Amino acid sequence: MNTVKSLIRTGSKVAVRHGRGHWWTIAVVAVTLILYSIAWPTLPLTHDVSPPLMPLISALAVFPFLLVRTRPALGWAIAAAAALAIPWAFDRLEGYDYPWQVVHILVVLALLAAVSIREEIRVVLVVWLATVLLFFGYVPGHDGWGWAVGLTAIVVFGLLVRWLVVSRRQLAKEEEISELERARRAVLEEKARIARDLHDIVAHHMSMVVVQAQSAPYRLPDVSDDARAEFDSIGATAREALNEVRGLLGVLRSDGQLPENEPQPGIDRLDELFDGSRRAGMRLDAQLVGDPATVSDAAGLVVYRIIQEALANCARHAPGAEVTARVDISVDTVTVSVTNGPRTAPGTTRPPDDRAGGSGIRGMAERAMAVGGRLVAHPRPDGGFEVHAVLPTMPAAPVGLALDPGFPAQ
Predict the structure, then answer these.
(1) Contact, 340 vs 321, CB < 8 A?
(2) In angstroms, rounded to a whole number, what is the distance separating the alpha carbons of residues 44 and 21?
(3) Where do the coiled-coil regions begin and end (predicted)?
């Protein structure tokens, strides 16, 4: 919840910033038009300019202001170049002492302030010095010194505003980092709470299942060999589930970086899976044909999980049946086949049922689809069951899902 709030708050800030920028642009355009509407009519009062050139000269004096927010240094350069050219090209009228229009001077000062706020310090120094020399060279009498002091005050004021803006931005960035850190800490605390609940509830009861399954042959009299094998299978399955729960607890208790480095099971660990099933009492014939090194990690993980789920289903729904697992690796594909005959021992778990809410076969099919493969699962004519999957050695886009119609997902 804190993470969502942080994202919403960040998005609101971006939207507000975008809206402010839009209004600033409108304000700059509006001020430019106002200045232009003043510069054009008043130009005949200050300089001797022919009427056809008045719109152009007024534009050179005013339009650089449009760059005050985006490229103030470029705008100042255009305005300064116009300030150099206009006194040289056009004579001033009698009674007007300054070489430029008042509007032109205001534009130069505004661009100087913008440069002080937005540009690098070396650019600010160059622009300040050039502006001072410009006024010393063109302003008559001793007013140049007064303008030098005024221009320096504008630059100092702009640098102070620049420092305030930078400080506020840094403060806002630090606050944003603090909000993200608080959100991350809240996520870690929630993960730790879930880990505690899993440890206190699931892991505890799974440990009890393991203990009861291992001690049952010694606690109960006249335990048959088949029942002993079934208890051993239950204990092995419970231990495996407990190990996976412990791995999940480690992930939940980590800081979010461990899961990326955790090794995932692949084809290289199929022998361990087969040996564990045989120790649980399963009559398993397993074969691996081909070079496992040609199979990607993603495809190898899917192969492992499909066989793991298929063998678990065999032990659950067909206890005592013969099971055959085969993995064929070719250049482009990996073919996985797990079949079992009809049950030969009484099982404690009823056959698959849609109403049970399970998702074993569908989960296998979704894993196959995730790497661009297909999976088929259906009953055999002799009463057994078959899981058959064809996967690419390298991950690809999902291509399909095949389930036997009428057969429920486990």
Answers:
(1) yes
(2) 36
(3) 170-197
The reported pTM is 0.42
Going by C-alpha positions, the residue among 100, 193, 113 that lies closest to residue 151 is 113
CA distance 91 to 99: 9
Query: What is the rounded distance in angstroms from the CA atom of residue 241 to the CA atom of residue 336?
Result: 23
Distance separating the N- and C-terminal Cα atoms of the chain: 35
**Which range has the worst mean pLDDT, 5-9, 232-236, 399-403?**
399-403
* Within a domain: 145: no
Element (H, E) at 332: none
pLDDT at 113: 92
Residue 253 lies in a domain: no
pLDDT at 211 (0 to 100): 73
Q: What angle do CA 339, 340, 344 make, to 5 degrees?
A: 180
Q: Can you give the CATH number for the domain in which 393 is found? A: 3.30.565.10
CA gap 243, 247 in Å, rounded: 6
Give the whole-angstrom CA distance, residue 291 versus residue 300: 12
- Contact (CB, 8 A) for 289 and 327: yes
Per-residue confidence at 376, pLDDT binned at 50, 70, 90? Answer: very high
Q: Output Rg (C-alpha) for the chain, integer angstroms.
A: 40
Q: Read off the tokens for 327.
A: 């993995």
What's the sign of the alpha-carbon dihedral 232, 235, 241, 246? negative
Q: The domain containing residue 77 runs over which residues?
A: 2-140
Enter the tokens of residue 37.
């509407």
Is residue 34 in a domain?
yes
